[in-house]
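hey so i finally got around to running the thing on that chain from the lab meeting. sorry it took forever, my laptop kept dying and i had to restart like 3 times. anyway pasting the input first so we r on the same page abt which one it is
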Amino acid sequence: MYRSLHLTSNPHVESTSEDIATFRHDVHLGENLKIIAIVKNCFQVDKNCRQEAQRARQHPEIHGRERVRPFYHGLVVAYSLAHDRFTWTLDDAEWSFSALEPYCIDMADNRVALCGGNYVEVVEVDSGLKRSFRHPWLRQAHSVQISGKGDRLLVSSSGFDAVFEFDISTGTTCWEWFAWDHGLNRSRLGEYFVRSRERGEALLAQGHQVVVVDDPSQHEFGIPTRLCPVHINGAFYDRDESVLVTLFQQGGAIRVDKATCEATTIASGLINPHKLHPRSEGGYYVADTRRGELLLLDDGFQVVRRLSFRETPQQVRSASLTEFLQSASELDDGLFACVDIHRSMLWLVDIHGRRYRGVSFPREWSVHEVTLNRCSPAMSHLLGKTFGRVEAIVDAQGGQQVRHFSAEGFERATYLLDADGRTVGEGIEI
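ok and heres what got predicted. didnt touch it at all, straight out
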């Protein structure tokens, strides 16, 4: 069941967007902070080229691939914001490690949780133990969050439009929610996705196009983004521990009551949004991704400010690409870190003082998330031992190489890029 509450502007607040280019440029903004960047892979140049080509297809407003692709190794890297850019060779990184297509990291007390591909892992700092959490319907795990009490994990499964909660101590699933089972099962191309043949036959009898997905093992990498009805790309606890879920293809967000599984629409009219999340000082924020805006909401989910990144100073994206504000994170009260993937920039924005600063990252990096580095020295040391090593090199001709190793030192993968940042050879499908 649904109760709709459309996201609108607060009538007492100006609804026009504020361009961050009108803010004061502050070269010292956030320089005392440390962050962790989650880089799902180093093929963003190839991805941009594919997206440019796909703008010419029918229904270019429906974003994403028509076919699933394999998972590739990426990296998790820690930087001080005293740097004005993050380097390809990781020379200025405080630490880094290799992971299979990482998407999100969370830290609480002496635990670190990492999700990506079809896995979720938790590292216990005291013992050094790394544990994996699995579910047959977990594909393209886009977000992970440790609960306030530290006893559960909340994970979004983009590949099958689902949300799971795991008990950390036992590894069991203690709650799950499937969008397709709750009315969000029609893709923007018109097909209905169902998990039971009985439901599929009923829809077929009504004249609908139906895709039955009753065996997740037959879909190793999940459902392609363009075909997926929702493509859930974030699930986070609200203050009352209901769950805030961001709907990429639906252009909105919902709040799910865990006791009843009832969903309430709390945001609509967005373009491929990411990460609806509570703010530290009350209210919420969400990235209106392909509109290139960060929206600040009050406690009633009404828009109180719109911050635009469309006219960012001295930074140009390809005219054939759309805006793409990949994610936003509140690092401190009112200080946001916003990933502008098509400009290869991390924007730091102080919403109270109206200040901004840009930190560049390699154009090859597909940065999915940036979060405040709350790792203790013991955590940082342990992560380097627990996960594999990553090594990035630039050769004399400007070509690039990134090598991934297991924790035991065995080489997992080596990727080669040319001087233009494109992948070399065959075998990479991005």
